[in-house]
Amino acid sequence: EDGNDPLHQEALATTIELAKYAEDRGCILATETGPEAPESLLKFLKKVPSKGVGVNYDPANLVMCGPFDQIGGVSVLRDYIVHTHAKDGVHLGAGKHKELPLGEGGVVFPYWLAALDKIGYDGFLTIEREVGDNPVADIAKAMAFLRGFDGKELPSLPWD
Q1: Within a 10 A sphere around the Cβ of 41, how many other Cβ atoms?
Q2: Is 11 helix (H, G, I), strand (E, B) or coil?
Q3: Which candidate, 112, 103, 113, 116, places its Cα nearest to that of 144?
Q4: Stretches in the chain below the pLDDT threshold 70
Q5: Do 112 and 88 touch, CB atoms closer than 8 A?
Q6: Residue 159's pLDDT is what?
């Protein structure tokens, strides 16, 4: 987060180069949320003078790594979100976290979905399940969980 740190400068220079490469080819390099607050990521992304950079919004990473604001972060990063991960997990403290099946962790899915809807996101909700005894069963369960929101009214959000 320190803009004067040599690693920050190197990461920024590399991101600028990759974003330009992506933009020249009609693509977007999407960085994933998680290790920093959405506001910090936005500050970094605003330094990249290219339409070739975006965000893969992963609310579980924000919960597990922060915990950071998984709902308000959608509004913060609204202009950069090009993809999402539907994933869940909990922050255990002391730098520890645990990924869990959808609906069993700290992601507040009705509000997260409402936040995405409010910014007009109409892309994929890609189910990501990297751990667990039976990831295939967890993915099937996740599909059913997300389909449970089809046609349901989502909660109101306080921000524009």
Answers
A1: 23
A2: helix
A3: 103
A4: 159-160
A5: no
A6: 67
pLDDT score, position 129: 87
60 Cβ contact partners less than 8 Å away, ≥ 6 residues apart:
70, 85, 87, 88, 89, 99, 105, 106, 107, 128
Q: Does the model's pTM come out above 0.85?
A: yes
pLDDT at 100: 93
Distance in angstroms (rounded) separating the CA atoms of residues 107 and 60? 6
What is the torsional sign of CA 31, 36, 37, 39? negative
**C-alpha dihedral (70, 67, 89, 42), degrees to nearest 10:** 40
Phi and psi at residue 84, in whole multiples of 5°? -140, 155
